[in-house]
Structures are given as structure tokens and as C-alpha cells.
Fold this sequence. Notes:
- The chain has helices spanning 2-14, 32-36, 157-170, 176-179, and strands spanning 42-45, 48-56, 61-68, 72-73, 77-79, 83-89, 91-94, 107-108, 112-115, 123-126, 132-139, 142-145, 151-155.
- By secondary structure, it is α+β, with helices and mostly antiparallel strands.
- Strand 2 (48-56) and strand 3 form a beta hairpin.
- The chain starts with a helix and ends with a helix.
Amino acid sequence: MEINNIDFKFRELVIPYxxxxxxxxxxxxxxxxxxxxxxxxxxxxxxxxxxxxxLDTKNNSYTNFMYCTKSINGPLHYHHGSVNAxxxxxxxxxxxxxxxxxxxxxxxAGSYVYAPAGTLHRAYMKVHxxxxxxxxxxxxxxxxxxxxxxxxGYSDVFTQIDNLKKxxxxxxxxxxxxDAIIQ
Length: 183
């Protein structure tokens, strides 16, 4: 009996119960037609849209889909935390890594990509059959640099929340939908 009590107390220390924290479940058809007609996708710039699935303010992380209709080269940046990504359609690569020098080394549909914290890179997404679609979990801030490696900006879960709120207000979407994905 005493061993079970100790075991229970140990589990409480490792994973404390957090009241008011709920799982996030989003039921959504994910195909090109549904993406094009879903106003909750945020247009970041020409040919790039983001859909947030979870915004975790306690761990400064966010989970999202990225959808591109044209192949793009991202800005030079690094992450304070790790990034886990899964490529659903299209091709993903990183210019600064020698391992992406050959076509076979790119991450294509069905590939998993892990970028450890501190990795400086310029990612690119290449469309296949008219679009690129990727799923990612980003932990920590993203720091953007110019080609001289000078700071030009950053984003984190809080800037993502601000962008999402502006988008919802602009498109007259209910802000209560945002509350459902913020933890």
C-alpha cells in the first residue's frame, strides 16, 4: 500500500494535474478545395497560407499547417526550440545544409523533418501538383536575420496569436474559435 502511495506522489511531481487545460480536437477535411474555401486559413503573403491547430502559451509553441500554391524560399532564420514537421504534399529542403545538395536528399511527401534548436537555415517549399502542404510543431521563438546575420525580426506563439486575432477580426470570424485552440 505504501509503495503505491509513493508511486502516485512521484507521478504527481513528474506530471502535475492542470485544471482547465483541455485537449484540442479539430475535425476538418483537408484537401485543396476545403483549404481554398476555409476562411480560418491566414494568408501570410502571396501564395502562402497558415492554419493554426494549437497555440500553447505555457510552452511558447504552436502547431500549424502551411499551404503554398507556388514554390517559395523562406527567410534566413533560426529557432530557439526544435521544430518537428511532416510533409504531406510537395518537397521541403534547407539551403544551408550540405545533405540537401542532391534531389534524393530533399524531404518529399510522407517525410518527417526534425530541426534542432539553434539551426540557422533558409527553408524552401516546392509545390507538387499545384501545392505544398506541411504540418509542423514549432517550439520557442523564430529569429529572422538578414544576409549579414543581423536581427530583423522574430515571431513566437504570442505574435502568432496577435496575427490570428487580426485575421479573424478582419474577416468577421468569431473570436471564440481562437480561444478553443489557445492553451
